[in-house]
Design brief:
The chain is an alpha+beta fold. 31% of the residues lie in helices and 27% in strands. A hairpin with a 3-residue loop joins strand 6 and strand 7. The structure holds biotin (BTN).
């Protein structure tokens, strides 16, 4: 009940922040929701604790000063088919992927989205730590239960997500994003986001997949840890202006929902074709580790399973299924 009421209040404040109406009267909201003005005031406090900058002006009412940055339930439109059917915002969590796993065990809906403002133990691929700046990043996970997919098809959710996030970023910012195999989003050769896919199931049936997405949205150069200064960036740095996180998040959910729906209907062919078009690793000379050796060669193709086909300098053909590649 509490969450439902807070969601309604946030939705009202967001609607009011569209050009035109700015302040919403506490009395009107109280009447509409059947609660007291004192209760409305308490809800405003909890919205503030969750990162909403709520301004209150006597005689006029309440307004949100940062509507484009608020990721609370009620602020983010989730009129999608699957992705976002259940939406959870947490001010702080260890990792949204871990939280999604806990909620899967507790019986969440297919399409659950967990968004956190701050991750205390954000995880990257290959056991790495994922750094994000509260208030300036997007950290989210999507739990999916693709009933009839064999587990062998789970890795395809990474290129699918990469293409969806690419589309969302280009739509919202117009910036020239590149996709680096297997899971990186880059601008100008620097990383601005990544995808962490975790899946579980038996051979013939994928029980669940958790797609974790991290995007550096408005981090400044000073926010980026020194060790990453030359290899990481953000959309704000690349475009030289802040990006509305709420719009970007909405667009990511819509694009992911569309591509996932198409994947379930038409299979992986179209998504792999799109990924091939967008993957900047193809045609590049790369270095990579494989079977305890370092190799170099030419990245020639994305195979139908999403693997990277490489013609090595010793003229062997290898198919990489995971791992890191370095462009030479
Ligand atoms: C990578 O590039 O190594 C993958 C980074 C994935 C980070 C995201 S942030 C949201 C989700 N929760 C996590 O702990 N990790 C993913």
């Amino acid at each position: 009940m509490r969450l439902y009421v807070q969601k309604q209040i946030v939705a009202t404040l967001i609607r009011a922040s569209e050009p035109g109406l700015r302040y919403v009267s506490g009395g009107d909201m109280a009447r509409e929701l059947g609660i007291t003005r004192a209760a409305i005031w308490k809800y405003m406090e909890s919205i503030r604790e969750d990162g909403g900058i709520v301004q209150a002006v006597p005689g006029r009412g309440y307004r949100l000063a940062n509507p484009e940055d608020v990721l609370l339930a009620g602020a983010v439109q989730t009129d999608t088919s699957i992705v976002g059917r259940e939406y959870v915002f947490l001010p702080e969590v260890d990792s949204t992927n871990s939280e999604a796993k806990r909620r899967i065990r507790a019986g969440c809906l297919d399409g659950l989205v967990v968004v956190a403002e701050h991750q205390t133990a954000g995880r990257g691929r290959m056991g790495r730590i994922w750094h994000s700046v509260p208030g300036k990043s997007l950290c989210m996970s999507v739990a999916l239960f693709p009933e009839d997919l064999p587990i062998s098809q789970a890795p395809l959710l990474t290129p699918l997500t990469a293409v969806a996030v690419y589309r969302a970023i280009v739509k919202v910012t117009g910036l020239p994003v590149e996709l680096k195999w297997p899971n990186d989003l880059l601008i100008g050769g620097r990383k601005l986001g990544g995808i962490l896919l975790e899946a579980s199931g038996e051979t013939d049936r994928l029980r669940y997949a958790i797609i974790g997405i991290g995007i550096n949205v408005n981090s400044s150069q000073e926010d980026i840890p020194t060790a990453l200064a030359d290899i990481a960036t953000s959309l704000g740095i690349a475009g030289n202006k802040p990006v509305a996180r709420r719009h970007l998040l909405q667009e990511v959910l819509v694009c992911l929902d569309t591509y996932y729906g198409n994947y379930l209907k038409f299979g992986p062919g179209p998504i792999i074709a799109k990924y091939r078009e967008l993957c900047s690793t193809l045609g590049q000379r790369i270095r990579f580790a494989w079977q305890a050796r370092t190799w170099s060669g030419l990245a020639t193709e994305i195979n139908p399973d999403g693997g990277l086909v490489v013609r090595t300098d010793s003229n062997d053909t290898l198919i990489l299924r995971s791992g890191d590649v370095h462009c030479l």
